[in-house]
């Protein structure tokens, strides 16, 4: 079996992402398996191993406590997809900034530097919002998986914010000037809308508010 | 049931196995097509234990590290049997239809 303290330290750092109770019970055993499956001369954690351990940690942390109804499980899955679309939106915003400028100039040749500065500020705000949105999607998925009614309401509010942002982008002509950004944002909104429908369905009500479900 | 879950339960069908043993068994059962990684395996094992489909058979210390052996519970055996029967029935129908289609083509 290949063995290296450096490699073990790398594995332990990644295992720190898992819930404490799971770590306490399984970390030593998992390290043993990881070292047994590592290459003979391996000294660092391979990217595929890192991705697998991080994915496992996310699954453990986002896994619902108990067994929520199908509608809530579906909503939680959609929230994870929503987080992925926020990542895609952030990448699209960064990559397509040049295209946005070209599209605006093609439509408005008299567009001034001051006006472009305003657009850049707006793009920067959206780029700051995207990481926050990723965290919100994941936190709300986690909290909803634990049957917290406030998390369901918070997701409703989050959907409201996404709706307002989409309408604002639409009013600013984003569908024309920044079609790629707008498409991803619209997809994100559709995912959030589907999650809201599932969270506020009758089946979900029995999970969040059992006292009201029988009425 | 996901394929990885099915293969893990299958690996435990004829006796208990430890984590590394399950990885090698799954690779063998799937003809090398599915290579489980530790993160995937232990997330699945934790869920299967929570669902009471598997349980810890025994623990031992090997080279200073904990080694845990897992086994199917009666409930796990029932679920695996049902899933295997379902897959078998689907495969039988698919093969039968393919044979019919082949017969019609020739």
What does this structure look like?
Chain A has 215 residues and is mainly alpha-helical. Chain A is 81% helix and 0% strand. Chain A has 11 helices and no strands. Chain A has helices at 5-15, 20-37, 47-62, 70-95, 97-107, 113-145, 149-171, 174-177, 179-199, 202-208, 210-213. In chain A, helix 4 (70-95) runs antiparallel to helix 6 and helix 7 packs antiparallel against helix 9. Chain A is flat, with a radius of gyration of 22 Å. The N and C termini of chain A lie far apart (62 Å). With 106 residues, chain B is an alpha+beta fold. Helices cover 61% and strands 18% of the residues of chain B. Chain B is built from 4 helices and 3 strands. Chain B has helices at residues 3-11, 19-29, 38-50, 74-105, and strands at 17-18, 54-62, 65-72. Chain B has a 3-stranded antiparallel beta sheet with strand order 1-3-2. In chain B, helix 1 packs across helix 2. Chain B is elongated. The N and C termini of chain B lie far apart (37 Å). The model of chain B has no long low-confidence stretch (mean pLDDT 91). The A-B interface holds A 1, 22, 26, 28-34, 36-37, 48-49, 52-57, 59-60, 63 and B 19-20, 23, 37-43, 46-47, 62-63, 65-68.
Chain-wise SSE layout:
The complex is a heterodimer of chains A (215) and B (106).
Chain A: H1 5-15, H2 20-37, H3 47-62, H4 70-95, H5 97-107, H6 113-145, H7 149-171, H8 174-177, H9 179-199, H10 202-208, H11 210-213
Helix pairs in contact in A: 1-2, 4-6, 4-9, 6-7, 7-9
Chain B: H1 3-11, E1 17-18, H2 19-29, H3 38-50, E2 54-62, E3 65-72, H4 74-105
Antiparallel strand pairs in B: 1-3, 2-3
Helix pairs in contact in B: 1-2
Descriptive terms for the model:
heterodimer; A: 215 residues; mainly alpha; flat; B: 106 residues; alpha+beta; 3-stranded antiparallel beta sheet
Summary, kept brief:
The complex is a heterodimer of chains A (215) and B (106). Chain A is an all-alpha fold.
């Amino acid at each position: 079996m290949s063995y290296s303290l450096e490699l073990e330290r790398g594995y332990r750092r990644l295992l720190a992402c898992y819930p404490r109770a799971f770590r306490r019970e399984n970390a030593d055993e998992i390290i043993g398996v990881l070292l047994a499956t590592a290459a003979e001369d391996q000294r660092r954690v391979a990217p595929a191993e890192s991705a697998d351990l991080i994915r496992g940690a996310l699954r453990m942390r986002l896994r619902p406590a108990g067994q929520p109804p199908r509608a809530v499980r579906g909503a939680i899955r959609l929230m994870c997809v929503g987080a992925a679309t926020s990542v895609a939106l952030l990448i699209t915003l960064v990559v397509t900034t040049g295209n946005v400028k070209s599209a605006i100039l093609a439509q408005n040749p008299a567009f001034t530097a001051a006006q472009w500065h305003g657009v850049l500020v707006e793009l920067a705000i959206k780029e700051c919002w995207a990481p926050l949105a990723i965290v919100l999607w994941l936190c709300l998925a986690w909290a909803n998986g634990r049957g917290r009614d406030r998390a369901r309401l918070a997701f409703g509010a989050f959907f409201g914010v996404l709706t307002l942002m989409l309408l604002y982008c639409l009013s600013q002509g984003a569908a024309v000037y920044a079609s790629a950004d707008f498409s991803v944002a619209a997809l994100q909104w559709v995912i959030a809308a589907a999650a809201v429908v599932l969270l506020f369905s009758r089946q979900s009500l029995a999970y969040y508010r059992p006292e009201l479900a029988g009425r | 049931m996901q394929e990885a879950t099915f293969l893990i339960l299958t690996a435990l069908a004829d006796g208990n196995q430890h984590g590394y043993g399950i990885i090698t068994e799954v690779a063998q059962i799937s003809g090398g097509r599915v290579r489980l990684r530790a993160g995937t395996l232990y997330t699945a094992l934790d869920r299967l234990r929570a669902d009471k489909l598997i349980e810890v058979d025994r623990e031992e210390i090997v080279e200073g590290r904990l080694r845990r052996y897992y086994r199917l519970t009666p409930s796990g055996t029932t679920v695996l049997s049902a899933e295997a029967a379902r897959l078998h029935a689907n495969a039988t129908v698919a093969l039968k239809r393919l044979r019919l289609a082949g017969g019609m083509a020739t």
